[in-house]
Each structure stands twice: as C-alpha cells, then as structure tokens.
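S.,

Sequence below, as promised.
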Amino acid sequence: MLKLKGVESGYDLLQVLWDVELEVDEGEFVAILGPNGAGKTTTLRTIAGYVRALKGSIEFNGKSIVGLEPHRVSRLGIGYVSESSNLFAGMSIHENLLVGAYTVKNKQLIASQVDLVFELFPRLHERRNQLAGTLSGGERKMLAIARGLMPSPSLLLVDEPSLGLAPIPTLAAFEALKQLSQRGTTILLVEQNVNTTLHLVDRAYVLEQGKVVLEGTGPQLLSNKDVQEAYLGI
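The prediction came back faster than expected:
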C-alpha cells in the first residue's frame, strides 16, 4: 500500500531524513520508533505532504505522491493525526467531527463514520455537544484520532498519541487504535512508548538520526538486545 524508497527530506537548510526506506502493507499496523529528533514526525509529515521530499520516492497504492499538496494526499485516502491535534476549540465534539468530513459528499458515509468513532470512543459520544477547548488532554487526543477517521481513510498516520497523556487515557488511545487495526484500517504510528507499541503492532522500524537502523516484528524487536538496552532499560 505505502512504500518509501531512498527518501530524504527536511526543513530549509536542515536535512532530517537520510535514505529512509519502509513499507506498509494493506491491513498492517506498523510503527516508527526512536528517540526525540530521530525524524519520526518528519517522516509522517513528508508522507502527508506537509514536508517536501528532497530525494527518493513515495508510492501509495502504486502511484507516486511526491510533491502533492496535503489536501490532495488526504483525498487519496491518507488520514493524518498530528501530535498537536489542531482541534477547533470553540466548536463542539460533533462539529469537529463534521469538519473532519468536509471532503465527504455522501451523508450516509458521514453518519456511519460518526457512529463508528462514537463506538470507539464512548466518552466522546457522552460529551458530543461539549466544546473541544474544554476537553482534557486524553479527550482531545481521542477527538483528534476520531476526526482523522471521518473521511474513512484507507491509511491512517498517527503521530505520538500518548504524548503528554496520563497512563489511563494513553491505554484508551492505544486500545482504540488496536480496535481500528482489527477492523481492517491500515495504520502507521509514530510513538516513543516503545514497550507498549511493540506489544501492539505487527512490525516496526527504528529511526536514529534520520536513518532506519532496525526493523522487524514486535516480538523480534522486543528481544533485540540493542532495543532492550536503548529503549526498555534492560
């Protein structure tokens, strides 16, 4: 479904990614792990079109998406949930969801997606008329993921869902992503919570200094001595 080959990108004169190669097959749950500054978020932003690739190829369903604007990438079926959420604070939960579906013309699809996200996040359903700006950090993250699902993307890019969250809302976010994966949504996740993530995903890539240094299944990386020493404190 998604294939990056030899991708390099960055910001102005600062190059962040160097010869990055990764693949995500349809229905997979894949993670990108690594320390702060490794290039994880830049990888997602490059795929989503917010950062332009300087070199290499990015293919989605066999077609190049290099150079496409973010709205065109989104309309191809790639959803992007940023770490900052970017919610409309003065709008309700339900209104934020409808904004997330602004490109969808089919009212039945919109209604079914609203039902889906409220099933995944019962707390959002309970507070659907509450203003987004009054939500807790965990609720805002839930809403950001829910809004990203509204166009019914075939691939969902999720950046740091546990960032700044307490353990209970973190587990809720991970559980929702697990349910999405089990329902068939393809997910590419960026996370720093290595232990929980590797127990959750099918495969993962480890980035360091903008380069892929390790890849494998969750169990393979959990048993890798370098991963244990660097990220699990073993």
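Residues 53 and 114 are 34 Å apart (CA to CA).

Coffee later?
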